[in-house]
Amino acid sequence: MITSNMADNESVECITEHERILQEIESTDTACVGPTLRSVYDDQPNAHKRFMEKLEVRIRNHDREIEKMCNFHHQGFVDAITELLKVRADAEKLMGQVTDTNRRLQDAGREVTAQTEEVIRCRIQQRNMTTTVERLQLCIPVLEMYSKLKEQLESKRYYAALKTMEQLEKVYIPRVSRYRFCQIMAENLPKLREDIKDISMSDLKDFLESIRKHSDKIGETAMKQAQQHRTFNSVVQKHDSGMGYTKPVYSLNGRTPTQHNGLAAEEGIDQPEEEGVEEDQSEEEVLTAQDLVDFSPVYRCLHIYTVLGDRETFENYYRKQRKKQARLVLQPQSNMQETVEGYRRYFNQIVGFFLVEDHVLHSTQGLLTRAFTDELWNMALSKITAVLRTHSSYCSDPDLVLQLKNLIVIFADTLQGYGYPVNRLFDLLFEIRDQYNETLLKKWALVFREIFELDNYSPIPVETEEEYKSVVSRFPFHDAEIEKQDFPKKLPMSQSVPQIYVQVKEFIYASLKFSESLHRSWTEIDDMLRKSTNLLLTRTLSGCLQHLTKKPHIGLTELVQIIINTTHLEQACKYLEDFITNITNVSPETVHTTRLYGLSTFKDARHAAEGEIYTKLNQKIDEFIQLADYDWGMPESDGQASGYLMDLINFLRSTFQVFTHLPGKVAQTACMSACKHLSTSLMQMVLDSELKQISMGAVQQFNLDVIQCELFASSEPVPGFQGDTLQLAFIDLRQLLDLFMVWDWSTYLADYGQPTSKYLRVNPSTALALLEKMKDTSKKNNIFSQFRKNDRDKQKLIETVVKQLRSLVNGMSQHS
After folding, report:
1. How far apart are CA 408 and CA 226, in angstroms?
2. Taking CA 790 as the corner, what is the angle to CA 788 and CA 796, rounded to the nearest 5 degrees?
3. 491 has which bridge partners?
4. In this prediction, what percent of the chain has a pLDDT beyond 90?
5. Which site from 564, 630, 665, 712 is most exposed, i.e. has the minimal number of CB atoms within 10 Å?
């Protein structure tokens, strides 16, 4: 039972599964039936048979349903076929009509089609023309700008051309960049830029070459107007009692330098602008930079390089080239020191160079900087000072040195007005001032020597009051006694004294010329004048006087006049100090005021002249002594003094009469010196080693000459000697001769060494030398003296005295 039930359940399940499979086969695509059919075979055994049976049953059911449907619709199908057969005839008739209508329509529309195609072609052409116009409207501005670019290049408007290029590149060409001509333009623009750079650089080089040539003219104009300005200010300052003001004189692009009068600026004087000056200024033509040189190449090149983004390259190139030109400008000509024009051209070029630099500095932004111009100026200052120091040292003409100083002052004032520091130039002027003084001293040395050469060394004769006033007007001479004398009369000094005094004043004026415009106070100028005058007196004039006194042709009379002249020049020194004080208005009582050394100068010159008087007087005495012709072996004297000695005494008398104009001490010293020299010369004559023998007669003759000398000394040839002071010059000779004339050897030997000795001034060696000369004479002349008792006794006495004198001499030598 159970088995039967299980079989029935399995059969039901199998039937249900087959139904599912069949439904799946019916609803599934034929390509996918494989897996479904496979499941039939994978199930229970003989399941496919039961499936096949089930399939056949399903097929039969579908066949019966198809048959029922066909039977249901067959009659309607037949009716439809019948209806179609009826409609075919009408369709054929309609087809013919449609074909005919189409043919007629085609024939009628062929002309319309042709016209339509023509309209279409015109519409296309119109559209193309519109497009072309639109494209041309885009291209024409590009072409116009390019044409404008070409015109700008041809007219050398390079900065505008660069702006046009920039517009082409950024605005116009991008709109039509697809066209080939625009590509060619775009490729050509960099080349045009390079061409513009090259052209502008070439113009700049031409400008630099031109400015080097025009610097001389620019500097000349600036310095000339600066000089006019200084002169104008000086006149106005004097007219307004020291109130000065400035006035524009030279402009570069409207910029005017500020100039100051040296003394007014130094003293701090205000400088107001007066209406009259403004009127003069408006009437005066003010030159601008463009009047002398065209700066457009610099501006153009600067703008071009700025637009091209290469400004730094241009700035470096410009500064480098200007530095090179500065070095060329600062190179002096080899013979510059020969004329002032050489210095003028040198300064003109430098001023022109730095005025151009100043103009470029203020008319451009950043091309030049103040630091660069200061560096360039400092380099130039070092070179200028070195050049001027070297070349001025070769200059020996004070007028040329003075002109050089004036040029340097104008040069410094001109550049100072443009902001360049010039203190080093004024420091250099102080060095040149010393050199100027040296050239003045050399020049005045020649002047003094010429004056001394032409002087007659005799008192100045004045015949009339006018002549006297003429001399006094040139030289400060005042003497009450001479003024009381009637004309004609003579002034004590010679003609050279007023000439020397005038020349010293001229020297002060010449020295003052250099001190002007140095921006120094009058106190400093006063000190400069006094120092330079001191150099003139202590070195130049003193040297000329020293040289004069040593000249061979200057005799005793001339030397006496020189001493008189120096005395009057010495007295005139205070007037020279007053002269300097009147010029500078600086009180001589000022603490730092330098005093003139003229007193010491003329004293030294006078002492030198006095020494020359003593020397020449002694030389003259020696000349007379050389004329002495003694017969040293004469048995007896002539009974009168020698002729040469009387001539000598007469010469001394006449000479000392000339000395009456000398100061008393000078005449007394000269007289005493002459007597001492004469005494010494006479003593040396008798003690000469070449003189071997002297007779007593010769001693007597020599004694007569010495007596004349003593008489001359006692006659007071020069007043002022007290007692027998002058006679003491011959005391040595007198005691020696008295010893031999009296033959008082016992007294001499007994009193030797005693302060009260009668023969205190007789030296044993001197007495021994003379005694030996007389002993030899006695032996030679008295051949038979040994046969006469008196002569033998005298000879023995001489030998005894000689021995004693030798012992004294030996004792003196041992003691010493």
Report:
1. 12
2. 100
3. 460
4. 2
5. 665
Q: Are 453 and 551 in contact (CB under 8 A)?
A: no
Angstrom CA distances, 423 to 394, 430, 522, 635, 791, stand at: 24, 11, 19, 91, 99
The pLDDT assigned to 124 comes to: 93
How many angstroms separate the CA atoms of 226 and 422, rounded?
Answer: 15
CB–CB of 192/165 below 8 Å? yes
Measured CA to CA, the distance from residue 670 to residue 665 in angstroms comes to: 8
pLDDT tens digits along 308-338 = 888 888 888 888 888 888 888 888 877 776 7
d(CA 514, CA 429): 9
Classified as helix, coil or strand, 757 is coil
Alpha helices in 240-339 (DSSP H): 262-267, 275-283, 289-292, 296-307, 311-329
What does the CA dihedral 115, 118, 123, 125 come to, rounded to 10 degrees? Answer: -170
- The pLDDT of residue 778: 52
Neighbours of 812 (CB within 10 A): 12
Q: Find all residues with CB under 8 Å of 615, minimum gap 6, and list them.
A: none
Is the CB of residue 516 less than 8 Å from the CB of residue 237? no
Indicate the range of 167-181, 254-268, 278-292, 510-524 predicted with least confidence: 254-268
The number of beta carbons lying within 10 Å of the beta carbon of residue 345 is 17
Q: Which of 466, 541, 536, 547 is nearest to 497 (CA)?
A: 541
Say how far apart CA 702 and CA 685 lie, in whole Å.
Answer: 10
Burial 281-320 (b: 16+ CB within 10 A, else e): eeeeeebebeebbebebbebbbbbbbbbeebeebbebbbe
Q: What is the dihedral of CA 549, 554, 558, 559, to 10 degrees?
A: 30
* Residue 380 · residue 350 · CB < 8 Å: yes
Q: What is the DSSP string of 363-404?
A: HSSSSS-HHHHHHHHHHHHHHHHHHHHHHHHT---HHHHHHH
Q: Are 495 and 455 in contact (CB under 8 A)?
A: yes
Mean pLDDT, the chain, as a whole number?
78
pTM of structure: 0.63
Helix H or strand E encompassing 490: strand 489-491
Q: In 3D, which of 438, 436, 435, 432 has the Cα closest to residue 412?
A: 432
For 733, the token pair is 């000779």
Torsion sign across C-alpha atoms 670, 672, 674, 680 = negative
Mind listing the pLDDT tens digit for each residue in 505-534? 898 888 888 877 776 777 778 888 888 888
| pLDDT at residue 453 is higher than 70 | yes
Place of tokens 């333009």: 185
Tokens linked to 456: 């007659």
315 residue type, one letter: E
| Packed helices 158-167 and 47-154: angle between N→C axes, nearest 10 degrees | 160
* DSSP tag of 458: S
Handedness of CA 398, 403, 406, 410 (dihedral sign): negative
N residues, the chain: 816
Q: What is the mean pLDDT of residues 608-614?
A: 78
Other beta carbons less than 10 A from residue 332's beta carbon: 20
| Tokens (6 digits) for 52 | 């096949």
DSSP secondary structure, 7-34, as one string? HHHHHHHHHHHHHHHHHHHHHS-GGGHH
Q: Which residue has the tokens 């030398």?
A: 769
Cα–Cα dist 684/474, whole Å: 52
8 A C-beta contact, residue 330 and residue 384:
yes
What are the tens digits of pLDDT across the range 363-407?
888 788 888 888 888 888 888 888 888 877 777 788 888 888 888
Instruction: Provide the token pair at 470.
Output: 């003429």
Please determine, for residue 136, whether its predicted confidence score (pLDDT) is greater than 60: yes
Is the pLDDT reported for residue 263 higher than 60?
no
Let me know if 809 is exposed, middle or buried by CB neighbors in 10 A (0-12, 13-18, 19+).
middle
